[in-house]
Amino acid sequence: SAVISQKPSRDICQRGTSLTIQCQVDSQVTMMFWYRQQPGQSLTLIATANQGSEATYESGFVIDKFPISRPNLTFSTLTVSNMSPEDSSIYLCSVEAGSGANVLTFGAGSRLTVL
Amino acid sequence: GQQLNQSPQSMFIQEGEDVSMNCTSSSIFNTWLWYKQDPGEGPVLLIALYKAGELTSNGRLTAQFGITRKDSFLNISASIPSDVGIYFCAGLFHSGNTPLVFGKGTRLSVIA
After folding, report:
1. A108 contacts chain B (CB < 8 A)
2. How many helices, marked H, and strands, marked E, lie in chain B?
3. What Cα–Cα distance (Å) separates residue B29 from each residue in A41, A80, A88, B33, B69?
4. Which has the closest alpha carbon to A37: A103, A81, A94, A77?
C-alpha cells in the first residue's frame, strides 16, 4: 500500500499563528483525507481533498480555519489557521490503501501543541 | 451522525493472556475495520471485514463482522508486550456515501 510522509512530525505553536502541514504520497491517488485526533480521542475527518477541485469539508470544519491545497495527485497541505490551544491535536493524512475499498492508510501524523 | 461504541476503554493484562474488545452501533455497517496505533504513529490496519458473519484472522488476531451488521469484535490471543497500543474499530455506514466512522479506541497495556 501507499507510503505517506508528513511534515512536520511535531511542532509547538503560538496562539494566533498558522501552520501548514504537508503530506506526500509515494504513488498517485485520487482522494486524500485529513483527520484530526484530539488528545485521548478518536479520529475525526476534517475534509477530503481531490486534485483539481475544492476540498469537501465535514460538518464542524470550515475552509477559513482549515484551508487545504491539492496541487497534484501525490501531495496535499492542510493549514491550521489562527490557532488556539483547542487546536492542539494530531493531524493525520490518509489515502485509500488499494487493498480494499474504503480501507485507509495513514501517515504518522503531525502533533501540534498550541500555547 | 453514526456513532460507534467501543469497549472497553482501556485494559491492563498480563503477558500471555487473551484479549477481547468490541464495537457496537445502532446503525448497520457495510465494512468493519480494526486499526492499531502505536505512540507517535498513525493507525495501521490490522483486519478488514466486508461481510456479515465474516471471521478473519491475522496471526494472533481474530476479528468478526457481527451477523446483525451492527457490531464487531477483535480478539488477541497470547498477548505479548508489543501488543501495547490503542486499538480502533472503524465502520463504513451502509449508504456508502459517508466517511469511515471511528470508535474511541481501546488502550491496551500488557504487563510482562
Report:
1. yes
2. 0, 11
3. 22, 32, 31, 11, 6
4. A94
Closest chain B C-alpha to A34 CA, distance in angstroms: 11
The residues with which A95 forms a beta bridge, in sequence order, are A32, A105
Angle, vertex CA A94, rays to CA A92 and CA A98, nearest 5: 160
Nearest CA in chain B to A93: B42
Tell me how long chain A is: 115
Phi first, then psi: give them for residue B104, nearest 5 degrees: -85, -5
Cell of residue A71, nine digits? 496541487
Amino acid letter at B106? T
**pLDDT tops 70 at residue A38:** yes
Q: What is the pLDDT of residues B47-78, one digit of tens each?
A: 999 999 999 999 999 999 999 999 999 999 99
Any B CB within 8 A of A101 CB: yes
Chain A residues lying within 8 Å of B45, measured CB to CB: 97, 99, 103-105
Q: Which pLDDT tens digit goes with each residue over A80-106?
A: 999 999 999 999 999 987 666 678 899
Residue ranges of chain B with per-residue pLDDT less than 50: none
CA angle B70, A90, A72 (to 5 degrees): 90
Is A91 in CB contact (< 8 Å) with chain B?
no
Backbone φ, ψ for residue B52 (5° rounding): -55, 135
